[in-house]
Design goal:
The protein has 421 residues and is of the alpha+beta class. It has helices spanning 48-55, 64-70, 119-129, 166-170, 180-200, 255-260, 265-281, 292-295, 297-302, 325-338, 349-365, 380-383, 390-401, 406-420; strands at 3-4, 60-61, 79-82, 86-93, 104-111, 140-148, 151-159, 205-206, 215-217, 223-225, 232-233, 242-243, 248-249, 262-263. The longest helix is centred in the middle third of the chain and has 21 residues, at 180-200. Bound molecules: adenosine-5'-triphosphate and magnesium ion.
């Protein structure tokens, strides 16, 4: 899905510098009219650019020749993806001089000179990924910036994510379907990444481009957020929002942000709610090729409320009913809370993390898979997502235990153990 309104002020961003220290051009500048002023009564918070100056020595600076060699001259066969910024290649780089070791497999993103994103986002990404450090954010290994006679070259070198993006697994039927547990773990990891950006850094970072294609997956399917080109600093003390040009991706951006340009961390929370529904339903937030009534996911899901009997109908058929219905209802309710109209009433990302942790824990011990639950679906408790009574569950488990296949035996044993202790 493509970005919108990227680079309203693109002409201003063309510069000749080759290092990412563009003092007057970063997204982290406080140059916009309603940008919060610094608080006079507390210690002045540092800006990302200042923190970057202190920490960025961790980043490796590559020559263009090194990256050309790493990708066999940007060979088409090594291309692993393409977005608004440009193409992404798989490559192999040598360890740093004096560091013995195997060559390192990396992902190299090369700025497309005619792309709708560009140099300014490249700078933002280098500055931001140069200072953050969290298991759910992709690691930037280094960058390359050359301003030659033939124009500018901007590249980013990341750790290689073997399982590409969540988008590749949820929507691309060429890949095996993701299991329910894996979907929950991925969304929990992504929520932790956002909570870190919003709540755990010296300054708040608003990500602004949360979507399935920006959630990368490593060899163990751990989620890592990527693409920080649109991110920016949140409001400082005494201010509720940052005023900014509206950028992001259609189908994911919060309506209040689109209407007013007022950006808060709750804009990311909205986008998180959208992706939660994508993960539940296996449908994209916007699918123009479907009948009109089904094109917009958020309008569609309103017809299947989390508490209703028909809720299960919109669940992704690729799950083959192998999920806990009550857990799915709780996730849908969490998504609904992220998608409330009033931004301030949406949960914070750390609250989202807490809810998802409970759902993950509960789905290990709570409900049997949906395919064994059809006969208890009439229960009013089940309809509103409340746990069914222990006695009822025990008799239900006894009934289904005869039918368990190999895949579900482990889950069943875990449930039994949980009831015994
Ligand atoms: N570090 C990485 N490791 C492995 N694959 C990657 C990595 N970074 C990106 N990719 C692959 O390249 C694809 C394109 O990524 P990119 O971020 O350029 O575009 P996008 O997210 O699809 O779109 P947009 O430009 O609108 O954000 C990703 O969906 C993913 O499959
Ligand atoms: Mg991306």
């Amino acid at each position: 899905m493509k970005c919108f309104n990227h680079f309203k002020d693109r002409s201003k961003t063309r510069v000749q510098k080759s290092a990412p220290t563009l003092k007057n051009q970063s997204k982290f500048d406080q140059s916009e009219p309603e940008r919060a002023t610094k608080s006079s009564c507390s210690t002045t918070p540092r800006r990302i650019t200042e923190i970057y100056e202190e920490k960025a020595h961790n980043l490796r600076v590559f020559t263009f020749a090194e990256l050309r060699q790493a990708t066999n001259n940007f060979n088409r066969l090594l291309k692993i993806g393409e977005g608004g910024f440009g193409c992404v290649y798989k490559g192999t780089i040598k360890p740093l001089q004096g560091n013995p070791g195997d060559p390192l497999v990396v992902a190299i993103k090369k700025l497309n000179k005619d792309g709708c994103q560009g140099h300014k986002q490249w700078v933002t990404e280098v500055q931001l990924l140069g200072v953050v450090d969290h298991p759910n954010l992709v690691r930037l290994i280094g960058y390359c910036a050359v301003d030659g006679e033939r124009g500018i070259q901007r590249l980013l070198v990341y750790e290689y994510m073997r399982n590409k993006s969540l988008e590749d697994h949820i929507f691309n039927r060429a890949n095996p379907a993701l299991s329910w547990d894996r979907r929950l773990q991925i969304m929990l990891g992504a929520a932790e990444g956002l909570a870190y950006l919003h709540e755990e850094l010296e300054i708040q970072i608003i990500y602004r481009d949360f979507k399935a294609s920006n959630i990368l997956l490593d060899e163990e399917f751990n989620a890592k957020l990527s693409d920080f080109g649109l991110a920016r600093e949140g409001p400082t003390a005494g201010h509720t929002h940052v005023s900014t040009a509206v950028v992001g991706t259609y189908g994911y951006a919060a309506p209040d942000y689109i209407e007013t340009g007022h950006l808060t961390s709750k804009s990311d929370v909205w986008s998180f709610g959208v992706v939660l529904y994508e993960v539940l339903t296996g449908r994209r937030s916007l699918e123009r090729e479907r009948p009109k009534s089904e094109q917009k996911l958020l309008e569609l899901v309103k017809q299947y409320p989390a508490d209703s009997r028909k809720f299960g109908t919109i669940m992704d058929s690729r799950l083959e009913n192998d999920y806990s219905l009550s857990a799915a209802r709780r996730v849908a309710k969490l998504a609904d809370s992220c998608l409330v109209k009033s931004a301030k009433d949406r949960p914070t990302m750390s609250q989202v993390v807490e809810v998802l942790k409970h759902v993950v824990q509960a789905s290990c011990v709570e409900s049997p898979p949906m395919k064994y639950l059809e006969d208890v679906e009439d229960s009013p408790a089940e309809q509103i997502g409340l746990p069914v009574s222990v006695e009822r569950r025990m008799s239900h488990l006894a009934k289904i235990s005869e039918n368990l296949d190999g895949v579900n035996t482990r889950r069943f044993l875990m449930m039994q153990r949980a009831k015994v202790t």
